[in-house]
Amino acid sequence: MTFFKNLARDEQGATAIEYGLIAALIAVAAITAMTNVGSTLSGTFGNVNTKMSKGVTA
């Protein structure tokens, strides 16, 4: 019976799960931010490419 009482009081597993959830949340936020930056950066490079192409042909 004392094994189950000690197991119920042990919070090490809960701490590991919390750290895992925090890491997953940070990963999702980083992926979202990088996706948005990537889209913006792609548009910027496309714009630069278009303007440079016009300059070469003119």
Describe this structure as you would to a colleague.
The chain has 58 residues and is mainly alpha-helical. It has two helices and no strands. The longest helix is centred in the middle third of the chain and has 46 residues, at 12-57. The N and C termini lie far apart (87 Å).
| Element string (H = helix, E = strand) | HH
Number of strands: 0
**Mean pLDDT, as a whole number?**
85
Strand fraction: under 5%
Number of helices: 2
Structural shape:
rod-shaped
Low-confidence stretches: none
User: Whole-Å distance between the termini?
Assistant: 87 Å
Note the main sheet. Answer: none
Helix content: over 70%
Structural class: mainly alpha
Radius of gyration, whole Å = 25 Å
Question: Mind sketching the topology for me?
Answer:
Blueprint: H1 2-9, H2 12-57
Give the gist of this structure:
This protein is mainly alpha-helical and 58 residues long. Helix content is 93%, strand content 0%.
Keywords, separated by commas or semicolons:
rod-shaped; 58 residues; mainly alpha
